[in-house]
Each structure stands twice: as C-alpha cells, then as structure tokens.
Fold:
Amino acid sequence: DQQVKQNSPSLSVQEGRISILNCDYTNSMFDYFLWYKKYPAEGPTFLISISSIKDKNEDGRFTVFLNKSAKHLSLHIVPSQPGDSAVYFCAAPDKAAGNKLTFGGGTRVLVKP
Amino acid sequence: DTEVTQTPKHLVMGMTNKKSLKCEQHMGHRAMYWYKQKAKKPPELMFVYSYEKLSINESVPSRFSPECPNSSLLNLHLHALQPEDSALYLCASSLGDTNEKLFFGSGTQLSVL
Structure:
C-alpha cells in the first residue's frame, strides 16, 4: 500500500513559468513532509519541508502548501529555471515504522529554455 | 562540512566477488542509512543505524551486510550478489533517529555482471 503518491510521473514547463508538483498521502498520522530533488546518478538533496501545524512554507522560489483535510500537498517553483530540471520526491516520516521515510514515486520535471 | 561522502562512485563486480561500499559523514549525525534506488523508482530503505547500533533491517538478503565501525562511518559489504542487485546505493545521515531530514551522499552506481 503506497502511503505517499505522486500521480504525475512527469511535468514539462517553460522557463520563467510556474511548476506545480502534487503529492497525496493516505496516512492521517503523518505530520511532517519533505521534498527532495534528485539529479541523475546523484543522491537526493533536501529542498523544503512543512510541518502539519502550518499550511504553507516558503523558501525563495520554492513554496510548499499543505491541505490536511484533503491529505494533499503541493510544491510550487516560481519562476522555473532550466537547472530545476530533475526528479522531485515527496516524503514523510512514518512514526509507526520507526520514522522510516516513505517516498512518493517521484515527478520528473523538465524546464525548457 | 555538510557532506556525506560515498566511495566508490562506480563499481562493477562479478557474482562471486566480495566488495564493500563506504560512507562517511562529519556532521555529528547519529543516524546513518543505506538506501537502494533502481531507475525511475524512489529510494528504498535497506538499513538504519542509530547511535552505531542496527535499528532497522528491511528484510534485506544476507548477501548485503552493513557495518558501522563508528559514528562517522558506515560500510555495506557485498558478497555473492545477483544481477538484479544492480542499482544506485545511497548512504544518508540525519542528526537523530527521528528521520526528519536526511542528508544523502551521491551514491555508488553498482553493476553486477
């Protein structure tokens, strides 16, 4: 049972426009969420996180929104840049499983110049 | 120093070989992790060491043997691997074992022939 899902495997966007990545979760006990960015043949790098006590967290061009009632979060990248082309993973620690980090399947973003 | 360093970056081994992957961090993190990632898939947790003790083994086959010599080092010993074990092996660390923010190394790309 996949507790964190990213239903869009890929996204293509023009440079300068907004990228919106979506993530849904099923476990209502999740109270902290992270987004990681991954380039090919490299490890994921932490991008931004949000606690369930907030509904928005912003860091420069990156903003994460959390809708607890819908069990949905989204990552907005504005403006998108070619260097943002990567795979983005949504993740949440599962406290019932020793805080094992549960990842979504990832969304591949391509930003076209 | 905010890096997790993994060696080697690439490894090709035969099914009868014995090899080791190494990971090092000097951030004072007390939890260290091994993940396996196949192409177009999210990282899959293999092992977690918390305060130098193995705390999670995700039912990994015994041909993978982790070792944590001290709080800064983590090894993964490989023996009699199968071609399907070919993947990117990622090491990560976190400040504690709450798993809220992982720092990943760049990985070892392993090919088993």
